[in-house]
Amino acid sequence: MIGSVIDKYEVLQKLGEGATATVYRGRHLAIGNDVAIKILHPHLSASPRYRERFNREARAVGRLSHQNIVSILDYSGKAAGDCYIVTELVDGVTLLGLLQEHGTLPSEIAAVIGMELCGALGFAHTAHVIHRDIKPENVMVRRDGKVKLMDFGVARVLDEGSITLDGSLLGSPAYMSPQQAQDQPLDGRSDLFSLGTVLFHAVTGHVPYSGGNASVILKNIIDGNRPDVLELAPSASPGFAAVVDKLLQSRPEDRFADAEETRVALLASLTEVELTLDHPSLQVANYLLNPEGCALQLRQHLEPVLLRKGRQRLDAGDHLGALQLFNRLLALDENNAEVLALIQALHQPASRDQAPRKWVALLACTLGLVGALGVWWLRASSPIELPGPNTPAAAQLAAASGSALPTAARVDVVSPPVSPVEPAPTAGHPTRTISLPLAPRRVTEPTASVTPVSAPPSTPVAPVSASLIVISVTGADVWLDGKLIGKTRTGPSADWVASKLSPLPVPVGHHTVTLKYRNAEDWVADFDATPGQEVQLTADPKRRPVNVLINRDIPADCTFTVGGLRYGAARAFDLADPSPDTEVVFTCGDKTFTAMPCRNGQCNGGNTVIVPVSVDL
């Protein structure tokens, strides 16, 4: 192919090859400018179905003219022997190549890249085009820092219908949305989920949903089984992590409404640390030239800002908010003397006339710490693999205070498995074990002595809070007055068993508790807390239907029967009221196959059960 001429383009150099096409550097014979030529593989060119899909790509992308989308210049048309698309040639590197060469990105750089991708997606979605295959390989970063989204090869044009592809999955499994994995109708929010996966990968070095094969990956995506950004990258911006978390919500309605709303949220994560887009440390071109220097410049900006804002939150009584900022600051600089001094100052003995007031403040801080560590402890009940130090501010605070932490709170910290689709983790995070103390102890730092907390006043102190216990039939995120406070413990995945959040101190007054489930509707309750009271709430949420996913394509002339009702061929369908004896009978001519997707108690509300079809239908 090298040296040959296709129409009016000379083929100069092979640039890459994918599952459907090979990409070459070419040159226009008359004009002389270099271009990229994407040529469909010969065995696919022979298929009318794939030729139509290839031509559809050309028509779809050809009407997308945007600074963040690779421009299409020409295409072969239906009558040509070779199917090809000619696009602008981008002088740069893919995001995957950037991660493989330099490791994970600072969250602020990832936010800038994400904002430019939002520009591309917003424009495409307005034109009723869904990309459907957003991944680091399809994101180009030009030498001048401009970000370009390319390869709309599996795009679907909403107002032109769709091509029947025999049930085959289009796109890369690790970056698919739950709706795409289940072959459900898609809108732009599916691309936003994939964008969240790319941003997660960029700052942690790992895809959020991994597994040994595509089926396991898809099941984890559908069920929402993933770690949080800050568990894998504690130096990332909490604001950025919150944006990614919202993008990765299982239900489309829980994500951002559109790409513009996502872009605004990413920009807010920058402004909250006093960064503007013209700041030198945010210039992607600078990062390409000198990643280490750019990261150092960003850190030099962040450290005083995080320290100052942490002090402000302490002064305002927002100890959990301060701890969050200090946690990031210690992740950037674990020996930051000012942060360690601030933590130690919280536990200095108060003067006699200030003792009651200091004691109340200390109690409030301790309650906040218990709440933060409670979330950590409850996460540990379901093992999560983490690289390097976890929640350094909490660990430093525990060491400085010498206070007792929750029992049974041993966390084994190991590097997470590397998915075949992701780069190897960045060096510098050795495996280690963190054991939280089970009894009060005193630790002396090499550079400063630590004074134990003074005893409370001898006179009785009235309770300043109540205790909240939340019992649920399954694991749920627990929100109190609009803020996440913890998670109920999750029982065996096959059973709906009572699980609870350990007693948690709550302020006296009126409150609203919301339990958010992945496999059931939200459950909401109001209650009034009085001093010293123990409030116990037991939830009984309404389960969502179970989705059944067939692991292989079903011929078009087949039917399946559930509960006496017959349906046409489908790879996925819902069971509104699943039970262990529910049978699904597939009929294809004179062949039948019977499956019982819920026989092992694996049908929890809202989850997905993969049914293996073991016979040739």
How would you summarize the topology of this molecule?
Blueprint (H helix, E strand, L loop, with lengths): L4 E2 L2 E9 L3 E8 L5 E7 L1 H4 L2 H15 L9 E4 L8 E5 L3 E3 H8 L4 H20 L2 E2 L8 E4 L4 E3 L6 E2 L20 H4 L6 H17 L9 H10 L5 H4 L5 H10 L11 H13 L12 H6 L1 H25 L3 H14 L4 H9 L9 H26 L11 H10 L8 E4 L18 E4 L29 E8 L4 E4 L2 E5 L11 E9 L1 E8 L6 E7 L4 E5 L7 E5 L8 E4 L2 E4 L3 E4 L8 E5 L2 E5 L12 E4 L6
Parallel strand pairs: 14-20, 21-27
Antiparallel strand pairs: 1-2, 2-3, 3-4, 4-6, 5-6, 7-9, 8-11, 9-10, 12-13, 14-17, 15-16, 15-18, 18-19, 21-24, 22-23, 22-25, 25-26
Helix pairs in contact: 4-6, 4-10, 6-9, 9-10, 12-13
Explain what this protein looks like in three dimensions.
- The chain is α+β, with helices and mostly antiparallel strands and 617 residues long.
- The protein contains 16 helices and 27 strands.
- The strands form eight sheets. The protein has a six-stranded antiparallel β-sheet. It has a four-stranded antiparallel β-sheet with strand order 16-15-18-19. The chain has a four-stranded antiparallel β-sheet with strand order 23-22-25-26, with no helix packed on it.
- α4 packs antiparallel against α10.
- It is flat.
